[in-house]
């Protein structure tokens, strides 16, 4: 057995890297594809969960960031910049620090989860809270990168999508084919685009017999692709995907057409319900944006759109520990307060409903 070496080493033959590319890696990728019997029972499909929270900074962004930072360093960059709803900033900060360069990150003020804010600061990023939303941050980052000596590492940088496509390679390695459906959360639609590219390349080289139907889900208050126009003031509790003007919009439309795919919108209430189902029935803890994959599956299955026995892969994009507060909320919105007990075995046994073995 050997240690997983990160996606650039593992897939060197399928990425645009050369002997001149310094490989900046924290060992990203190689994440588990986990069977989810509870979701299979609910839907009649064979459901697998690709748990991207298992990456070094706790989200799928690390696959793209190893590529983007490696290429930036190859091209002599001393500083990178990104706009972020949190995960990209955490990842950029970690990989830039590892490479010995500077990361500047622009986040919407007061709108990113505490875990992600902590990561960017811990990894020594230059973090600025912008008095605007994510779309404003991205506009500023693009303008700065166009006019100042700083390299953009948002997913408008094609190296990001390249790195992220490796997740599809891993799914195919496990299933020995593409799934019938692949479901992802959608914000900028970079990851939707990346999976489509990964699967297309697998089909082209004969590793699969088909493309999966690519299903993407946006939060109902932030669903520009579903409603067909920019959303000026996007809202959702799923802060990671609170995006009104997706950067990879047209690439995603193309991917939907070519894969007979679908984009749908999910209410915050259904996102939180799916979050509870994934935590309490499957044993996988994710941030709210990731739970939208589960909510999307349940919605499509309910609508009769997932034939029985289909193989479905759900990508869950970020770890629950980044934004844990949602687990402490009951379905009715009230706070969950763990029971307090004294240091007393019989009393604790009583509270747990245990009676002494005889
Ligand atoms: N899930 C999580 C946890 C995310 O952080 C993001 C995007 C997405 C899904 C959507 O992916 O943008 O490729 O469609 N987060 C970005 C960020 C915007 O700044 O961390 P997408």
TrEMBL record:
Keyword Ribonucleoprotein recorded: no
All residue ranges annotated as the Tryptophan synthase beta chain-like PALP domain in the record: 24-318
Reactions mediated catalytically: O-phospho-L-homoserine + H2O = L-threonine + phosphate
Key word Cell inner membrane present: no
GO molecular function: threonine synthase activity
Pathway: Amino-acid biosynthesis; L-threonine biosynthesis; L-threonine from L-aspartate: step 5/5
Entry EC number(s): 4.2.3.1
Cofactor(s) for this UniProt protein: pyridoxal 5'-phosphate
Keywords: Amino-acid biosynthesis, Lyase, Pyridoxal phosphate, Threonine biosynthesis
Xref: PROSITE patterns: DEHYDRATASE_SER_THR
Signal peptide interval: none
Family: Belongs to the threonine synthase family.
UniProt-listed NCBIfam families: thrC
Known function: Catalyzes the gamma-elimination of phosphate from L-phosphohomoserine and the beta-addition of water to produce L-threonine.
Protein name: Threonine synthase
Organism in which the protein naturally occurs: Subtercola frigoramans
């Amino acid at each position: 057995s050997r240690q997983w070496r990160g996606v650039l080493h593992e897939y060197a033959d399928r990425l645009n890297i050369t002997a001149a590319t310094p490989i900046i890696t924290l060992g990203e990728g190689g994440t588990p594809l986990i069977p989810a019997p509870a979701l299979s029972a609910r839907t009649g499909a064979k459901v697998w969960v690709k748990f991207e929270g298992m990456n070094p900074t706790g989200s799928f962004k690390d696959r793209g960031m190893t590529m983007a930072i490696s290429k930036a360093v190859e091209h002599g960059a001393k500083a990178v910049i990104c706009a972020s709803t949190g995960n990209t900033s955490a990842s950029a900060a970690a990989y830039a620090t590892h490479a010995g360069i500077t990361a500047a990150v622009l986040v919407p003020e007061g709108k990113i989860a505490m875990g992600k804010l902590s990561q960017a600061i811990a990894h020594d990023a230059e973090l600025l809270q912008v008095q605007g939303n994510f779309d404003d941050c991205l506009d500023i980052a693009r303008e700065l990168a166009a006019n100042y000596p700083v390299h953009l590492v948002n997913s408008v940088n094609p190296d990001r999508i390249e790195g992220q496509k490796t997740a599809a390679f891993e799914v195919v390695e496990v299933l020995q084919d593409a799934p019938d459906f692949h479901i992802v959360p959608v914000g900028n639609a970079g990851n939707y685009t990346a999976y489509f590219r990964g699967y297309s390349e697998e089909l082209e080289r004969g590793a699969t017999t088909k493309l999966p139907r690519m299903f993407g889900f946006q939060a109902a208050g932030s669903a520009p692709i579903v409603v067909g126009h920019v959303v000026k003031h996007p809202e959702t509790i799923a802060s990671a995907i609170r995006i009104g003007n997706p950067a990879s919009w047209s690439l995603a439309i193309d991917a939907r057409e070519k894969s007979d795919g679908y984009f749908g919108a999910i209410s915050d209430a259904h996102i939180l319900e799916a979050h509870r189902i994934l935590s309490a029935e499957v044993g996988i803890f994710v941030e709210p944006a990731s739970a939208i994959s589960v909510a999307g599956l349940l919605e499509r299955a309910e609508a009769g759109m997932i034939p029985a026995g289909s193989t479905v892969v759900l990508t869950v994009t970020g770890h629950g520990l980044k934004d844990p507060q949602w687990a402490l909320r009951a379905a009715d919105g009230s706070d969950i307060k763990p029971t307090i007990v004294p240091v007393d075995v019989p009393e604790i046994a009583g509270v747990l409903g245990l009676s002494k073995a005889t």
